[in-house]
Amino acid sequence: MKDLLRRLTSIPAPSGREEQIRAFIQAEIKDYCDDLTVDTMGNLIAFKRGGKTKLQFAAHMDEIGVIVTAIDEQGFLRFGNVGGIRPHQLYAQRVRFPNGTAGVIGAEKVDDLKQLTLEKLYIDIGAASAAEAKTKVNVGEIAAFDYPFVDLGQRVVAKALDDRVGCAVLIEALKRVTKPQNDLYCTFTVQEEVGLRGAKTAAFGIEPDLGIALDVTGTGDTPEAPKLAMKLGQGAAIKVKDVSLITHPQVKELLTMLAEKNGIPYQFEVLPFGGTDAGAIQLTKAGIPAGVISIPCRYLHSPSEMIDLNDLEAAVRLVVATMEHPITL
């Protein structure tokens, strides 16, 4: 799993530019499903036959990034956000464009950190003029953050663990499941970070009976952290609520029962911010019961996110248990 995470997080794939990560996942799972398709939006959907109930899992492939909005006369790139980024965390961070061009984020002088907005930031790609910069990068190009995977033993740090960790869980579950009791639609979605877009269209086409997103969640286990119950190393998190979703009671009860029955460590998640693909799935057509299996993660939406591999393993086991449990709602 650690090597899979290393490979997944090394691939740049900001929202709307998921081609590389999709190709990698497609090659990784092609021998573990009955059908593999890519829909109009770019979602990768792996189907595995198993039963009458249609169960959709969703893990998003995209990551946060930046998009070039203008190039000034000195060759510095002005940029906007792709997904949720915090300006005060960006100074001196590195980014890389699809053609390999690398840059570092600089900032204009500000007297107060509160004045540090995206408009005060720029990307320096080492160009001495606008003409030189335009030979490397054009307006409208999207870059991902460029940081290596770090192995800390039982915990790892990387960019894009939101949500390559969810992709890793779904890939590994597909490899482990032996007797699926439901028709499985394992969906690797696009453009989650900019509005849950891929999940919305995928669920519309699949029309599942139940939907479960796989994503990260914040923690409350660092100094002076927000008062959140989730902690690294305490197991998979079964979501109760976030901004986009109140988990369907039957889904919460199902996941809790399966965790307890199979001796899988778990914790409950109530998140006062953010949302996941489940928020879009539940509102599809006439409504779909939906929930989330989350992996606790520190330093969300930064180039240095951290997870515990025990939580990752617990999430895989819970997904497999759900796949192999005959579901009726």
Automatic annotation (TrEMBL):
Annotated protein name in UniProt: M42 family metallopeptidase
Sample GO molecular function, one term: aminopeptidase activity
Positions of Zn(2+) 2 binding: 162, 193, 301
Domain of life: Bacteria
Species lineage: Bacteria, Bacillati, Bacillota, Capillibacterium
Active site: 192 (proton acceptor)
Entry coiled-coil feature ranges: none
Residue positions binding Zn(2+) 1: 60, 162, 215
Organism: Capillibacterium thermochitinicola
UniProt xrefs under PANTHER family: AMINOPEPTIDASE (PTHR32481), ENDOGLUCANASE (PTHR32481:SF9)
One family name in Pfam for this protein: Peptidase_M42
Names of required cofactors: a divalent metal cation
GO biological process annotation, one example: proteolysis
Annotated signal peptide: none
